[in-house]
């Protein structure tokens, strides 16, 4: 009796913990439930067809970038021989995602050419003015014509042969294009070296102590660290600079102090400081962590699934789940009476335990995932039916209620465990070989099957034993259908 009371308190504790987890760790929803963006990506190759190996390599790099973006349950799959489809749940701005994912992210370290100091200083001054204009543009009121007029005049002073429009967006695009052009010109004043992004092992970011700008931290492998030391040794104490170039654009140029003449900068690390905002530094960090794309890609199509459509899917799924549980509960109570009532309580516990595990792992819930959850509910009900039929057989054979309950659970154990194990094997195969949505279905079904084992064999028995402590609830008539002899 004390042992069964201990199980009851343990189940109540699990229920309380499940409710706490669901309140503090909300469920993660997939693209079809939460809304988000879908991007169709086209691989670009100048000569020949895209090979399977190149497609897989691009897939791997993009997968790393998406993971570093922190997008949950993203779905990246191939389409034909040279396209990829990327789904980003919760991302309502596909342009922002494409800016991070679409860059080649070819990182290079270059050394300044001889006799280019005057030309470099002039270009750096122009880039500084462009950055200042972009900052003014970001903080100015879009409707303030005076601010836009000043920006346009300053832009014309820098490049008087640039065509620009009075349109706000066109003017901003012109600023960005001008900055890119100047950065390309700066990069052309530097010679390429053997050190590149392939020598990186990690990238990070931090805020500078003296201002609000951010900088990106780089860590090289052993070979890359040696190359970096040799390059900085050759530049130390001279007026030549070291340039960090990303996709052909120089984003930072730095001098090397004379104290590094003998050894260069050792330690295998470097810092990129280019007046980055927090968002710019994060984007660069993501690109560098993911690695360089073997081939450039183009965003050929973008689709946005609004949160309204996702909420409709949630409501429909909720209605379907409630109606299903309601009909199952009515059937169980009508056919099994007290035993059916026990199964309904056990299913409620089962639902809370399941959802709590989804939020704790975490599992991103999609429509296929909900299908797996509902199917696992059927498995849980089926286990209860096996147990209750065994209990009825024992009661009909003349055994007492308590002995019938013990015998019913004991005799049904092997059948329930065998059925659940075969389902778990199927879930494992689906999870290993299936696509993301199939994996979501397999994950929710597998978790549900494991929870079902616990609720069917422990929760149901504990609740039933607790009810039988009341004398009124020990009548056999409450456990047998009228079609059975009593």
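Q: What amino acid sequence fits the structure above?
A:
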């Amino acid at each position: 009796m004390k042992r069964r009371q201990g199980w009851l308190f343990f189940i109540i504790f699990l229920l309380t913990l499940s409710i706490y987890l669901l309140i503090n760790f909300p469920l993660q929803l997939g693209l079809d439930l939460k809304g988000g963006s879908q991007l169709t990506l086209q691989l670009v190759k100048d000569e020949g067809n895209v090979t399977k190996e190149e497609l897989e390599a691009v897939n791997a790099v993009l997968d790393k970038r998406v993971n570093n973006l922190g997008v949950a349950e993203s779905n990246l799959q191939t389409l034909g021989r040279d396209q990829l489809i990327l789904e980003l749940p919760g991302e309502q701005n596909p342009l922002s995602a494409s800016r991070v994912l679409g860059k080649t992210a070819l990182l290079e370290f270059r050394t300044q050419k001889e006799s280019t100091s005057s030309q470099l200083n002039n270009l750096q001054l122009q880039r500084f003015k462009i950055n200042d204009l972009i900052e003014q543009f970001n903080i100015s009121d879009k409707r303030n014509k005076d601010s836009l007029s000043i920006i346009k005049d300053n832009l014309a002073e820098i490049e008087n042969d640039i065509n620009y429009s009075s349109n706000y967006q066109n003017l901003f695009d012109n600023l960005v294009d001008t900055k890119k052009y100047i950065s390309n010109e700066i990069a052309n004043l530097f010679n390429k070296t053997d050190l590149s992004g392939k020598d990186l092992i990690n990238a990070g970011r931090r805020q500078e102590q003296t201002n609000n700008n951010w900088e990106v931290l780089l860590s090289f492998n052993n070979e890359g660290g040696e190359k970096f030391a040799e390059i900085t040794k050759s530049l130390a104490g001279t007026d030549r600079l070291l340039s960090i170039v990303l996709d052909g654009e120089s984003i930072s140029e730095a001098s090397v102090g004379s104290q590094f003449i003998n050894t260069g900068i050792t330690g295998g690390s470097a810092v990129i400081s280019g007046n980055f905002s927090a968002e710019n530094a994060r984007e660069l960090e993501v690109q560098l962590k993911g690695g360089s794309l073997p081939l450039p890609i183009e965003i050929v199509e973008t689709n946005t699934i609004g949160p309204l459509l996702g909420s409709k899917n949630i409501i429909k799924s909720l209605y379907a789940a409630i109606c299903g549980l309601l009909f199952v509960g009515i059937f169980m109570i009508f056919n099994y009476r007290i035993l059916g009532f026990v199964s309904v309580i056990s299913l409620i516990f089962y639902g809370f335990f399941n959802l709590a595990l989804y939020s704790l792992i975490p599992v991103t819930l999609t429509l296929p995932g909900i299908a797996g959850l509902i199917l696992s509910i059927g498995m849980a009900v089926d286990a209860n039916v096996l147990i209750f039929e065994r209990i009825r057989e024992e009661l009909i054979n003349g055994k007492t209620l308590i002995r019938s309950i013990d015998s019913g659970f004991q005799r049904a154990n092997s059948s329930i465990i065998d059925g659940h194990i075969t389902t778990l094997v199927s879930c494992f195969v689906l999870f290993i070989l299936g696509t993301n949505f199939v994996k979501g279905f397999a994950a929710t079904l597998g978790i549900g099957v494991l929870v079902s084992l616990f609720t069917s064999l422990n929760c149901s028995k504990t609740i039933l034993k607790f009810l039988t402590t009341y004398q009124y609830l020990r009548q056999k008539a409450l456990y047998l259908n009228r079609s059975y002899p009593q």
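Q: And what stands out in the fold?
A: The mean pLDDT is 79.
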